[in-house]
Design brief:
alpha+beta; about 180 residues; 9-stranded antiparallel β-sheet; single chain
Length: about 180
Amino acid sequence: MRLSTALALLLVSSPVLAAEMPARKAGLWELKMSIEGRGNAMPAIQHCIDAATDKQMNSMGANPRAEKCSRKDVQVSGNTVTVDSTCDIGSGATATSHATVTGDFNAAYVVKVSSRTQGGPAGMPAETNMTIEAKWLGPCKGDQKPGDMIMGGGMKMNINDLTKMGPRGVPGAPGGTK
């Protein structure tokens, strides 16, 4: 459950800003995510990227979301990007989000996202405040290839494998590639 939550948050929060973010430096990045009001810290994720993987990661979920967003206001000031959006997130829910990203994308950056959800299934939190702290660790390790994500506990997967899966994580399902 933690793995799916961490991956979902990573995919949801990063791509929402995709078109406005500069490219990250190639190499190994560590991402630490925290959600306000959640007692247990989420395990850090290490992500090996190159230019192509970074671009793919940013665009993975951005296009479908952009089509479902009725508002997306972007402001850039120095090394700070602010994005305010209102998007249909499915199941009858609408999310209004405010995100700020600060940093230089060569050494470290911080993403802060505050989101308010209306409608949707029971149990979905009405408000969520999340922070992602990212720092560049250096070149990818010898046994890593671009796209590799190492979750807490050493579980390893490659983000490129997700593009071959459909919306429910089923290889070859509609929306995925074969």
